Structures are given as C-alpha cells and as structure tokens.
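Interim report, section 4.2 (structural modelling).
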Amino acid sequence: MDAVHRHRLAGIAALALGWELLGALTDGGLVPLSAVLLAGADLVLAGELLEPLRHSLSKLAVGYALAVAVGVPVGLAMGFSRTADALAETPVRTLFVTSVASLLPLLIGVFGAGIGFYVVVVFLFAVFHIALTVRSGVRGVSDETIETGRVFGASGVGLYRHVLLPASLPHVVAGLRLGVVRAVKGMVVGELWVYAGFGSLLHNYQRYSQTDRALAVVLVLMVLAAGLVRLVEALEERYAPWTSVEGGVR
Amino acid sequence: MTALERAWAAHPRKTRWALRGVSAVALLAAWQLYATAARTLLAPPTAVFGAFVDVLVSDGALRAAIADALVHTAAGYALAVIVGVPVGFALGLSEPLAEAFDPVVDALYAAPVVALAPLFVIWFGLDPLAKAVLVFVFAVFVLVVTTETGVREVDSGVVDAARVFGAGPRTVYGEVYVRSALPSVLTGLRLAAGRAVRGMVAAELFLYADDLGSFLIDTAATFRMAEFLAGVAALSLTGLLAMGAVSLVERAVTRSG
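Predicted structure of the assembly:
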C-alpha cells in the first residue's frame, strides 16, 4: 500500500473516529457513526431504500439525459461560433444564476407532482452548468491545436470532426461530470419539495426525530452522487483517455 | 479562410453587442407576445417588471423580506469564511493532509447538502441558527477547494527565494503564501457568496419560511405570476449583487496588493 492510500485511509478513519466520539459525547444530538451505519444496514435489509432508489434513478436518468441532449450541443455551438455565443449568452447566463429552487413553488403548480415535475427540475438544475462548462472548454482549445490541424490538411467540416471535437471532448466530459452532480441535487430538491421518495423518507424520520435513519439516507445520497461521478469518470477513461480536465466537481 | 477562422478572428465588439441586444429583445418580445396572446399562466415581461418595481421599490415588502433573510445568510457566510479559508490553507500546505481529506471534501462538495435540512430541523429546531448553518454548509466547501488550490499552486521558487533572503515562518506563511494565494481565495469568496444566496433560498423553502419563503410560496400558490417571477428575478439579482460586491473588494485588494 503506498503513502497516498495510507493517508487516505487515515483521513477517513480520523473522520469516522471523530464522528463516533462526537456522537457519543453529544448524547442525543449527533448520532454516533456506528449507529448510523446500523440504521443504514437496517434500511437496506428492510428494502426501504430500494423503492425510492428505483424511482429516483429513473427521474434522474430522464432529466439528465434531456439536459445532456440540450446542454452539450448548446455549449458546443456557443464555443465554436461567436455568433451563437452572442445570441445565447444572455439567456443562458441569466438562467444559470437563477436559483432553480426558487422556481419550485411555480413548477409544482404547473407540472403537478408527477414525473414531469422531477424531470423539469433535474433538467433545469443541470442544463445550464453543462452548457457553460462545455462552452468555456471549447473556447479554451488552443490556437496551436487548430493551426496544427490545418497544417495537416484539416479544413471545413474536417477541422470540426478531427480537431475541434476531439480536443473539446474532455471538456464535454467535465460538463457531464458537473451535470451529474447538479442533477442529483435537483432530484433531492424536487423530492424534498413534494415529500416523495428519499424526500418523504427524510421528512418522516425528521417527524419522529430518527436522526440515525435520516443521517443514513443522507450518506446514501452522498454515495449515490459520488458513485455517479465515478461512473462518468470511468466512461471518460474508456472513451476519452487522451487528456483529462480538472473541474466540474473540483 | 475557413468559416471557423472567420468566426473566431475579427468579430467586432459592436457586432457582438448588437447580437446580444437582438437576442435579448427578441426573447422578451416572444415572451410578451406568447403571454398576452396564449392566455397562459405566464405573466408578460412588462407585468413582471411592473411587479418588480412594486414589490422592491414602491411597496418594498420583498425588499424587507430579502434584507431579513440576508442577516442569517451573512452569518452563515462569515462562518464559512472563518472555517473554510484556514482549512483550505492547511490542506494546501500539507500534502499528506490533502491526501487524507481531499476525497471527503470532494464528496461533500458534490453532495446534495439540502438533504441535511430535515436533520437541521431536528438538531436546531425552527431557529435562525438552522438557516445560518445551512448557508454555511452551502458555502464552505467551495472556499476550502479554491483556497487549497491557490495555496498548492504557490510558486515554490518564490517561497525558496524568500527563505534564502532570511524570511522566517511568519513572513513565509503570513506574507508570501497569503499574497500568492490571494487571487484564488478571492475567487472562492465570490463563488461562496453566490452559493450562500442559493443556500438562503433553500433555507427559506426547506427549513421554515419567513417573509421571503412565504412570498414565493403564496404568490405561486395563488398564481400571481408577475409577482412570483419578480421575486425570482430579485433573488437572482441578490446573488449577482453579492458576487459583485466581493468582486469590488477583489479588485481593490489585488490593485493595492
């Protein structure tokens, strides 16, 4: 085991120990980690998490897929063409800074509490972050890369196909990564707002002050977000291994 | 010349601004037409603007509500700065510490922290403290990450040079590191201000509603669309102003620094 892994383990162990001790000391407030993990195991064994997980993932998948289908092309267009950028920048940035959470009371009135509501919330949470990350990535493709491509005979469509798109792909992946994080946030916000799925679990545990179970659900959601980001990273290593772009999550 | 080069090369500033203006006007016009012609719930932009002036300036109900909410937000933001910047410094200075805690910081940064809201109700009750803590959680991780990056990227040559010229730890950490990492820290402060305002909205909607939350919920529930959208716009504006205020500080500090 190398030093990095040792340090990483030590860090997690230190935090777990700190949580455990703090939980034991603040009797009744923060629940010790061991109790939270037990509660989590209980929830998993009782199958209480399965149903919300299935529903949430399908809402997440549809909303995220839509956000990618819209955000990536818009971001690419804004990056490649200054005209498209000038046309789209004002509305995209305006919506980017708008707090989607503040739109919840309206969205619930318009879409009801059906799947459409979640899809729209997830979509709105993710799409502008994806578009702007992709845009700034494409904008950052260096002139040298383009110049080299031209020297080697790429022009017109070929320049896009063989130079600009491959050079932009890592930035697209960075956008997809940030998009996943935002999409999970959107899903949780939506479910909390209508007391559905994980949101209804959290609200129920709150009502009966079941801190251990509520914390277990929060941990599950954290792991879910981190796991989906890992999934996108695995896809990146598989399909765009030539360079990786920091950013998105970090 | 390829189309791409033509597009990238000399796209005069004037054209860009003209295009921006055209797109904004076209969108507003389309919105106006759609909202007036198609008898939907959607209020036309003119009505939204009227409501905006009304609730923020002449009536001022929303202005007072936002000002109230900003008090908890400022407290949470201040706490995030007090905790986040030193933690970021520590992680940036020490490689082992960063290796130990980076994964957790990343996971927390990516986590849907709004899920903590029900827990905060258990722990803090329906108390302004809960709101401040939620804002804190919203804002703190971006500060840790940006500060850490800024400190890590401090040019080690500059640090060595300072040491060679006899600078003690106080100068090295208090002057060299702080000054070199400052731009990154200031970026973090700006981003955190935006996040704090988002946290404020989340606190109003998911913890308990004061005037601001009630304004959003009531106007939406009674389909007073113009007022509701004016409220949403006012919140966006609040976020932009908060970030803008930090930018001003940023510019003043880096110029004098």
